[in-house]
Write a structure and sequence with these properties.
binds guanosine-5'-diphosphate, about 45% helix, alpha/beta, Rossmann fold, 6-stranded mixed β-sheet, Four Helix Bundle (Hemerythrin (Met), subunit A), binds magnesium ion, about 475 residues, Gyrase A, domain 2
């Protein structure tokens, strides 16, 4: 499918199955004519002759004259519709048989069944909304909590777009000051904005972009779940812990070392917060290429996580700790780290003779782990017996405390926006460096333009390719 095709007329069932009413949307230059061909209004006056933004009652008929349903048709004329095109919405009874019949009739008359997100894509291409607003439509439909709903609603209503517009204005101002300097640099008698003023504007821009980039960790946690990476040596019980936390057999558990080679993740709601648990390949020295690729990804996931669960086999805790401390601890800076001493069930039976209590063993282990900073939390549990899990869950909820969002907070939750903003941030840093180093204006302008380009990518303009658009809209539901 050519994704930029907007000149044909599309139709789709826009409502979920099982409701009392089902709506079919038709959009395109022929929307009204084609609907008229299958619809007989009770008043006798065809849609083509009716005023827009009216409801018309009538019947959907087959070419043979059989009544498929009694329906209400709403009428929209370009450019005042969701897509910006002529559109109709046929509200039928919610039977999937009826809806399929109406779809088939429309298709027989020349409509094309719409792909995912095609209506919103048309809305974007017709200038009804920018790209970030279009993406918010999908988020809004997928929202499952007050926080995700608020983020999406704010973005769809243009909160983010406005913030970006202010930024772009500032950048354009800075660019024009720089270019003024370039154009008239031969005229030594002219005074230009001095560099400290330019640096000041650049600093303001940097702060705003920096702030937006920072909001992504909250936005992402709210939208996709707080990322919790489960890492550690092979056979420490990481997959068992994942399964215990998710309460299902999600990952393969085996006593063969190196079983988990790929990343397995799933979400779970605890105390009203969605967590994204990520089981990773065990970290060990290996010559197996596939396994080492898996281990590389383990580190990637560790880096992306907000919370790290380092699973250690309690029966050889000191050894496992020493093996990996150098690799794991430095990567946990700025994250919450929980050291999970797993297989506590084995410990208690092994140490039965000494009559040491579970707590005492735990304390001993804690002392045995050297140079642990204060804020690292150490818990002992048995993933296999599902003992001690509630303590871990409580700890996770404590760590994850997310801020309450207000209606107007701009929070970046879309990875595409985050990446564009990160690139914009790099560019503005180069601008700042350039200004500080007294680089010539044309070099600095180049980075300024790059910064503008990346901000432009977010709202969409003239730059996006079919591929980029296709990628964005394919995640939509059909009918939106
Ligand atoms: N006794 C005991 N065995 C466990 C526990 N957790 C995991 N195991 C076992 O340890 C082995 C490795 O577990 P697995 O979850 O695959 O480890 P991974 O390689 O870290 O993912 C399996 O045989 C598990 O049944 C536990 O809490 N107690
Ligand atoms: Mg595993």
């Amino acid at each position: 499918m050519n994704i930029l095709q907007t000149e044909d007329t599309i139709c789709a069932i826009a409502t979920a199955q099982g409701g009392a009413i089902g709506t079919i949307r038709v959009s395109g230059p022929e929307a009204i004519t084609l609907t008229d061909r299958i619809f007989k209004p009770v008043s006798g006056k065809p849609l083509a002759e009716r005023a827009p933004y009216t409801l018309t009652f009538g019947h959907i008929l087959t070419p043979e004259g059989e009544i498929i349903d009694e329906v209400l048709v709403s009428l929209f004329r370009a450019p005042y519709s969701y897509t910006g095109q002529d559109s109709t919405e046929i509200s039928c009874h919610g039977s999937s048989y009826i809806l399929q019949q109406v779809m088939q009739l429309l298709i027989r008359q020349g409509c094309r069944a719409a792909g995912p997100g095609e209506y919103t894509q048309r809305a974007f291409l017709n200038g009804k909304m920018d790209l970030s607003q279009a993406e918010a439509v999908a988020d809004l439909i997928a929202s499952t909590s007050a926080a995700t709903h608020r983020m999406a609603m704010n973005q769809m209503r243009g909160g983010f777009s406005r913030e970006l517009a202010v930024l772009r204005d500032k950048l354009l101002h800075l660019t024009s000051l720089m270019e003024l300097e370039l154009d008239f640099s031969d005229h030594e008698e002219l005074e230009f904005a001095d560099r400290s003023e330019l640096e000041d504007i650049a600093r303001q821009i940097e702060q705003v972009i920096h702030h937006l980039v920072d909001t992504f960790s909250v936005g992402n946690a709210l939208k996709n779940g707080v990322p919790v990476a489960i890492v550690g040596e092979t056979n420490a019980g990481k997959s068992t812990l994942l399964n215990a936390l998710l309460n299902e057999e999600r990952a393969i558990v085996s006593d063969i070392h190196g079983t988990t080679r790929d990343v397995i993740e799933d979400t779970m709601n605890l105390g009203g917060i969605t967590f994204r648990f990520i089981d990773t390949a065990g970290i060990r020295e290996t010559t197996d290429t596939i396994e080492s690729l898996g281990i590389e990804r383990s580190f990637q996931k560790l880096d992306q996580a907000d919370i790290v669960l380092w699973v250690i086999d309690a029966t050889c805790a000191e050894e496992q700790y020493r093996q990996l401390a150098d690799k794991i601890l430095p990567r946990c800076e700025g994250k919450h780290l929980v050291i999970v001493l797993n297989k506590a069930d084995l410990l208690s039976s092994a140490d039965m003779d000494t009559a040491a209590s579970k707590d005492a063993q735990f304390d001993r282990l804690k002392v045995a782990l050297p140079d642990l900073s204060e804020d690292v939390c150490v818990l002992s549990l048995s993933a296999k017996q599902k003992e001690g899990l509630s303590q871990l869950q409580k700890q996770l909820v404590d760590f994850a405390a997310l801020p309450d969002l207000s209606q107007n907070d701009v929070v970046v939750s879309n990875i595409r926006h985050y990446e564009a903003l990160s690139h914009a941030l790099e560019a503005i840093h180069r601008v700042q460096d350039g200004l500080a180093m007294q680089l010539s204006g044309d070099l600095v302008s180049q980075d300024l333009r790059e910064c503008l380009y990346h901000l432009g990518e977010i709202v969409g303009g003239t730059i996006e390719t079919d591929e980029v658009l296709g990628n964005i809209f394919k995640h939509f539901c059909i009918g939106k």
